[in-house]
Amino acid sequence: MTQAPAVVRYGTPTGRWVILSAVLGSAVVFLDATVVNIALPAIGDDLDMGFAGLQWLITGYLVTLSALILLGGALGDLYGRRRVFIIGTAWFAVASLLCGIAPNASSLLIARALQGVGGALLTPASLAIIQSAFHPDDRGRAIGAWSGLGGVAGAIGPFLGGYLIDVVSWRAIFLLNLPLAVVVIVVAQRHVPESADPSQSGQHPDIAGGLSAALGLAGLTYVLTEVRSQGWSSTSIRAAALASAAGFIAFFAIEIWERHPMLPLEIFSSLAFSGANVSTFLIYGALGGYFFLFAVYLQEALGYSPLEAGAAGLPVTVIMLLQSARAGRIAQRIGPRFPMTLGPFVMALGLLLARRISPGGSYIVDVLPSVLIFSIGLVHTVAPLTTTVLASASQDHAGVASGVNNAVARAGALIAVAVLPALAGFGAGRLPEAPAFTSGFHTAMTIAAIITAAGGLVAWLTVPMRMPDASALGEEHHCALGGPPLRPAHNRYGCEEEGAAA
After folding, report:
1. Tens digits of per-residue pLDDT, 182-199?
2. Which residue has better confidence, 88 or 23?
3. Residue 500: which residues within 8 A CB-CB, separation 6 or more?
4. Among 357, 371, 355, 377, CA closest to 315
5. Which stretch of DSSP H or E encloses residue 104?
6. Both ends of the chain: CA-CA distance in Å?
């Protein structure tokens, strides 16, 4: 299969169809992700799931997504981006149906892991379609439209999801994906040109690397989530720890010896690239833990409805949508080190202010200041990430570099959701009562603030004042909070469309 010529122009009927397909495809993942956390209390009550079970609803999805997203991008380059995009959309829709009709907790957890596989196929192909289809002169505007419309979906998602949970059922948030997926598949089949990377011809996808990474992450997640209830003497905990170690050892061995690895390890020879990814792991880990607990705490301890809990985090999405471009210009002018250092410290201040959120408090006085300060720090943190990650990698590895950064962000959130509740003192059983939940939430916010500040410190020590290629980046376009920002000229792997309320 050869690379299709980039002849689609922005503003033409074909161009609008391509953008519509990519936006709706992302929205299928995006809308689901923005409301799952909001639905956790309702799911827990309906299926009698304890705190550990609710954690698995998030981590089970993130395990398969973070382990396979690089492989998903490579499959699109090799076998055709439209083909993989359609397969990923159909896969995600079937998994969403299984979530929506799940009769018990076990079946729902399996379906969520299958959703992650679909997301790993769909997400990178969504942006890669725009990259390959549009004329280079129009590519920036096309990606800007994709990013902006994705932000609108992020703003709508919490309201729509909260309303459906309130009025219909938590199952509706999964079943909503089905009609959207049908539209995406029909539009993509009729209007999106097929493309692939001719340099990948004759190669084979690094399936062994992807599967070994998934085994390592799954085993580690099981240990971190279940050890507080089973203890280290448990046979299953020990078996999971051994499986995790074997998976990670096999992964690195495969990536060293594989002729075409999905993760070329030489990319980490750059201190700036490695430091930026360590910072990403810490910051996005704190971010994932924060949003996992935030919506549940508002409902269980403060009595918010699902709709109110979804709306409470809306300022994060709005500020990201309105200020990302300006923050990107500031970072490009002064260099990435100061924003990537000060931004996390401002985020940490917002997280510490979240300790003021308690039963009986006011949203305007207690919740909103924390959310606003956290958002201001966040928007100035994610903007320079793409500058640092992409400028510190060679042009040959630009797409892989962005894909690695996205996978690192997911892995950070995965580990945080598994570990943070245990560090905060939450048990594996039912959700705690308001006093215990309040104490644990405040502890979790303190830990998240420390982790976020550590991410800023890592950036100060590893990220240079100026990146050598920063002037060539041009305008940056930012995903929602599920992934770092994108540079339109090179990224093949996309970003996971998880929004502020996710």
Report:
1. 999 999 998 888 877 666
2. 88
3. 34, 154, 158, 291, 313, 314, 316, 317, 320, 480, 481
4. 371
5. none
6. 37
* Contact predicate 159/311, CB 8 Å: yes
Are the beta carbons of 32 and 115 closer than 8 angstroms? yes
Most confident of 212-216, 317-321, 402-406, 488-492: 212-216
What's the mean pLDDT when you consider all of the chain?
83
Count each helix (H run) and each strand (E run) in the chain, helices first.
17, 0
Distance CA 368, CA 339 (A): 23
With CA atoms as reference, report the closest residue to 306 among 411, 157, 420.
157
Tell me which residue of 126, 204, 105, 5 sits closest to 483, measured CA to CA: 126
Across the range 440-451, mean pLDDT stands at 95
| 413/415 Cα distance (integer angstroms) | 6
Percent helix, strand and coil across the chain, each to the nearest 5? 75, 0, 20
Both tokens of residue 392?
């510190």
Provide the H-helix boundaries in 301-395. 306-312, 314-334, 337-353, 368-382, 385-391
R_g (Cα) of the chain, nearest Å: 21
Helix (H, G, I), strand (E, B) or coil at 230: helix
Are 93 and 178 spatial neighbours (Cβ–Cβ below 8 Å)? yes
Q: What is the pLDDT of residues 292-341, one digit of tens each?
A: 999 999 999 899 999 999 888 888 888 887 887 788 778 778 888 899 99
Structure tokens at 13: 């009927």
Nearest to 277 by CA among 128, 379, 119, 400: 400
Q: What is the pTM of this model?
A: 0.85
Residue 480 reports pLDDT greater than 60: no
HSE-CB at 106 with a 13 A cutoff on CA atoms is: 0
Q: Is 430's pLDDT higher than 90?
A: no
Q: Is the pLDDT at 135 greater than 80, yes or no? A: no
Give dist(CA 321, CA 317) in Å, integer.
6
CB 401, CB 267: distance < 8 Å: yes
Kindly report the backbone phi and psi dihedral angles of residue 106, in degrees, each rounded to the nearest multiple of 5, phi listed first: -60, -45
